[in-house]
Design goal:
two-stranded antiparallel sheet; binds S-adenosylmethionine; SFM1-like; protein-arginine omega-N monomethyltransferase activity; DUF431 domain-containing protein
Length: 211
Amino acid sequence: MGSISGKKIRSYIVEHLDPELGPWSTLEYRSIAQDSAKAGVRFFLSSVPTVMSLPPELRDLESLTIEHRSVEKLFQEDKGRVCLLDPAATVELSPEDGTKFDVFLFGGILGDDPPRDRTSELRKKGFSGRRLGPIQMTTDTAVRVTRMVVEQKVPLKDIPYVDYPELHIDENESTEMPFRYVKDADGSPCMPEGMVDLIKADSEKGFGDLL
Ligand code: SAM
């Protein structure tokens, strides 16, 4: 864990587990990188295949470090520093976890409905797990909530949420997002820039193809 003027600098790692890095993941990862810079934390995207060409939106982002090695390899001698955010964990994340761990690990997995528990791929590696409540969040939301708990010391139960928001595609059609989001100041779900437009465009293709 590094420190600047006595402030601990924690690392947030998303282990990319999907075979591709499509537009949804791109918007989520870019948003995590931008927010990490504002919060003064480090953001790593690990297990990025060397042959994968990064989308332009993720290239040259100062606040994003691309790591081709897996988190298991990076922390094989140091697993105790790592907290896996795991929907199946039995202990909820608390502000005190910011003193127990300095690395917070997330599955780089697009949400699915019903959830397929692909976070188990990381659980099997033996990292300590913490849950962020009973409802599935998008990866950027899970990182946002973890930062609020660990960096700002806000207990999970005091964070305002919007569950399963309905997005209006046009005047006749709407779609329900099967996730929990943080509620922003005007009561809307906090989503990466460009995500609502992407959802609207993709909803014409059929939501089932995306999950
Ligand atoms: N359906 C998923 C699965 O297969 O495990 C959940 C994927 S979720 C979109 C992406 C990541 O966000 C998870 O791997 C986990 O690290 C984190 N996450 C999402 N909701 C969570 C929750 N309620 N508690 C803990 N972690 C969560």
